[in-house]
Design goal:
Protein name: Putative ABC transport system permease protein
GO molecular function, one term: transmembrane transporter activity
Largest sheet: 6 strands, mixed, barrel
Subcellular location: Cell membrane
Distance between the termini: 27 Å
Family: Belongs to the ABC-4 integral membrane protein family.
Keywords: Cell membrane, Membrane, Transmembrane, Transmembrane helix
Helix content: 40-55%
Radius of gyration: 32 Å
Shape: elongated
Amino acid sequence: MPIRPILRALRHHRFTTALIVLEIALACAVLCNASFIVAGKLSLMHIRSGIDEPALAVVTLDNFERQRADDLNARVVNGLRKIDGMQSVDLVSGLPFLGAGGESVSPDREGKRGSYLTSFYFGDPGALPALGIALTAGRLPRDSDVVPDDATIVQSVITRSLADRLWPHANPLGKVLWCCHGTGGFQVIGVARELIQAMPRDDISVGNAIFTPQRSGPMLAGQYLLRADPARVNEVLRKARAAMATLAPDATVDDEHTGTLGDLRHRYFRSDQATADMLMGTMVALLAITALGIVGLTGYWVQQRRKQIGIRRAVGATRRDILRHFQIENFLIVGMGIALGVLLTYAFDVALMKFYELPHLPPAYLLVGAIVLWLLGQLAVLGPALRAAAVPPVVATRSV
């Protein structure tokens, strides 16, 4: 079918055509960028933590005297280990989705060879096996690895991701990494296959983590890692919370930082889930409005051109010819909208990169967005186009 007559017809409806083109352009920009943001958030929410989440819970205490931390830890740990179904209880400071100290680390003391943001986890030597961490090299911490709090170099287990960044293509075991401008060193005794940062926010440094064994004391107190059979972990956690009134009457349970690891993951990502839901709702609403706009415009044009359609039917045009005319017309309008939408999409992308530090939008999202809008346009125009194709030739003769 010739394109020129269709373009000539569109020029007679410049204003309405321009409105639909702008609407499609805006829909394209919002759809592509919002889809990219939603995909990133959903991917992050389902990230592998590297620990045995179904079998783990944590109890966090607050408002206790740090000077009496050893006494508190002894009472709580010994009491919790007696709970039916409890497999292990260990002291920890920081967990994935719960929070931990963060610092940039470097393979050299002066930091001249680059630095990498890293989460620091501390706990007693039994905490790492309780987490279910698998090693790819080296060994797990032992009681003999625990050193005084003021030690310059401590024994640590780091993640494979961090090791590859610090010493690519080299064996990290025995090497020392540095933080705090060279004032603290961590000698590598083991390499964990996987352990994410305490507060994952991007894919760049999410796998950078260090675990260091530490002794009970003011710096390691009030947070207890519980391990139980996954089928009983909620039951064990309820018993542990109830036992706190007897085991630690001098402290209070921090509800926000107490729960199963599944609870902690849900709480940590609830704002991301809310944002993803809002953006998906916005995309659905915008696509619906765009489709309604196309239906309304095409229906109006069909009504305005009934005589023209009747004449074409009278001189031999088939229903398929009329249907194809409106489909091609819609395809061209949506194409113009997508062309303008590409420019808007990259303008939005630049703004998001500048103000929200989001990564660059991959071109694949533009291709998918264009396909979705073209399909939506064809579906939206189908009803009015079928009505146009059904206009009988007699319509032309009635107005003669």
